[in-house]
Amino acid sequence: MAQPLVKKDDDLDDELEFSPFMGIEKGAVLQEARVFNDPQLDPRRCSQVITKLLYLLNQGESFTKVEATEVFFSVTKLFQSKDTGLRRMVYLIIKELSPGSDEVIIVTSSLMKDMNSKIDMYRANAIRVLCRIIDGTLLTQIERYLKQAIVDKNPVVSSAALVSGLHMLKSNPEIVKRWSNEVQEAVQSRAALVQFHALALLHQIRQNDRLAVSKLVGSLTKGAVRSPLAQCLLIRYTSQIIRDMGNHSQSGERPFYDFLESCLRHKAEMVILEAARAITELDGVSSRELTPAITVLQLFLSSPKPVLRFAAVRTLNKVAMTHPMAVTNCNIDMESLISDQNRSIATLAITTLLKTGNESSVERLMKQITNFMSDIADEFKIVVVEAIRSLCVKFPLKYRSLMNFLSNILREEGGFEYKRAIVDSIVTIIRDIPDAKENGLLHLCEFIEDCEFTYLSTQQVYPYIYNRVHLENATVRAAAVCTLAKFGFMVEALKPRITVLLKRCIYDSDDEVRDRATLFLSILGNDDGLVETDNDSRESPLKKLLMLIMCLRKSNRSHCREESQGQKPTGLGAPPPAPVSGFDAYERLLSSIPEFATFGKLFKSSSPVELTEAETEYSVNVVKHIFGSHVVFQYNCTNTVPEQLLERVNVIVDASEAEEFSELSSKPLNSLPYDSPGQAFVAFEKPEGVPAVGKFSNTLTFVVKEVDPNTGEAEEDGVEDEYQLEDLEIVPADYMVNVGVSNFRNAWESMDPENELVDEYGLGPRESLGEAVKAVTDVLGMQSCEGTETVASNARSHTSLLSGLYIGNVKVLVKAQGGGYNGGGGGYSRGRDGGGYGGGGRRYDEDTEMVAAVVDTLVVVAVDTVEGSDLYDELVKAIKGKTVGRDHLIFGVALHLACTFCNVIMIVEIMVEELVDVFKHKVMLKSYRRRGQTCS
């Protein structure tokens, strides 16, 4: 029974796109490849399977050695088919599989047979495949056939041989250079592509000989080139010679300039455009030299072909940056392009007009641009905004109309980058044009009320900043506090009113806002504002300590100034030496190496990992440098043998167990004398944003030269040697930076609960709960917060609070709860969030948080606090004047500060007596562990 006809849904067909390769799997395709072994070959079926294999290869699918070999041997059986279409597919798959040297021999005879075939298509494709898969030894054997192919009468065969020569020039330059006579003959060919490829190959052969290149160009500029493509190539070579030679003519004319000018009258449009662009890009080009090129480009502006209009206006746009007056004659033609259907052409026309227009045409251009802006994408709008900014600086008297235009488009819909470009433009105009300051500030005030981008809100300066303290999020509130403080610094008359506003900010719910308000009040000289509140009558010792901090900073500015000038504080109050961080040094080192300078910003550098045992002949450790899509291994090598000099020191890295990594480059060490450390580098590429892991095998290779102990000179001859190093692993923790947070609970609760992930994991047998905590922390590579890295000896369960920064600057918080450890064994669980971790957290009252802030601040301040100072007296009073209850927290802080900053011997007697009482009341002092210091 016939099926009824069903009308297709046109709208649905438009929305859905179907691919003939949808759902293709490697395993299924490899099964289908067995058709290559059938006695009766089906050319159509075989071609379809080869197409699928090519699709998988081009999509990045990797084939194992066994799989690739099986497919290759099966494909070689298809040479027995006489089907032309199938034969072409066979050529393609062999070229993509790139067989090894052992397998090439099997197919070489078939390809050489095709290369001498009477069918030109077979000959051309066989040449392409052979040159792709053979090495230098086999190339020598077929060199004679390739020379004959270069001068073959069939242009397809000749072009295939020339293109193959271009590819082989990189790996076998000496052999290809012997083909100069044949290539020179091919340059005279009447076939366009043959002449084009022959000229490209001949130039590559002679590129290191300037005189030979100059002679080649000189001979060809006399009219021997017929191919438009070859003519374009010749124009580029001519431009390069002009740049290298400069103006050496006695008449003042540039060498070969007449040739470039004559190309402007060529019948091929591509040649005309290439010549015009070459003339406009000449160094120090004059207006007289530009005139013929500008005239030709002006004609292209009215061409019916969009590609010509685009090429012409883009070239004129570049010329307008350096020679705006030379382009003014084209303004009328470019104004008509503002309404062009191609938005790229219209955008280039607008920006060119803004660069070349005069002061009287600004108003007219603004009217045209207003209608134009609503029809283009944000990326084009940004280009227009940047051009308007330059125009305003060029014509400062027109700032009103330009500022109004920017203000109007600022209120319209748009993305973040677009709005940021507008805001930056207004700020630039305010900075460069004093008269525009008032209008610019008003425009920014209007914008900030409805701004949806927090980052842009923090960039604004406006009269009602204090409103932001009440109406906006924490980031904007912090920016508002900074701006208010700046007003207080710059305008003395405003200081009292600014102080009143800042006092209200010290009770903000956000730590950053409170800290900034406190800091600026201190700098403004209003420290008393920190404690002059309505609760003065019941002031706690905690707030007294907070006041003492500000007084202490203020009274020791000279001390801090000495430290900044290089004089380190001494005495009992001097801070302990901070560990030296090598991250900045690593970043400077890697950015100075050209091979790695383009990798972007360094995210993390690991601690050195030893790859050799102690007291061995050669000491090697490695530092793993993590970038967004690259990993660089820095091998720090030391030669411990006095009688040896190592040269050409390199590390061969086997990444067979790290499939997601591909080696990009290596930077060996030229020389490694005795006891002089050196570095070798190996760079790998990994997928962007993917935490790829794997194991790398390392082998140190070098040339050993004996050193005369008497003269210290090394022998000329050396012996190649290698030294096996330990394996190196990239683990998930390498993509995490252990960054702490000041308040874990607030940071946790500020995360989006939707990003929370809760799961359970078993850690296997462990000696203790503390060992399990350390294992989890090490595996995640995160920072323990609020002293949770310490586990009580009799604890049956424990909660660890961890924080870190994941690659891509993703904030990560973890709350890990573990238990069940009673002499070993048990489990450990953790709660996790992808962009940050949500959930609860340990809660402290407000005074406890303030105590932690006090400790953090005082530990940072490097001052000498000696007996008799105000702080010392206050600490003693705090210790002696404690009360049972919450104020034991105050005692704990005072005790911590006394241990850190004061003469410990002088207060030991006081402390011992009070400590007994502290432990009786079970005061929790672990909340105050900061930066590895504890109250003990």
TrEMBL record:
Residues 733-817 form the Coatomer subunit gamma C-terminal domain. Keywords: Cytoplasm, Cytoplasmic vesicle, ER-Golgi transport, Golgi apparatus, Membrane, Protein transport, Repeat, Transport. Residues 27-526 form the Clathrin/coatomer adaptor adaptin-like N-terminal domain. One of its GO terms (cellular component) is Golgi membrane. The keyword Nucleotide-binding does not apply. One of its GO terms (biological process) is protein secretion. This is Coatomer subunit gamma. It comes from Brassica carinata (Ethiopian mustard). The lineage of its organism: Eukaryota, Viridiplantae, Streptophyta, Embryophyta, Tracheophyta.
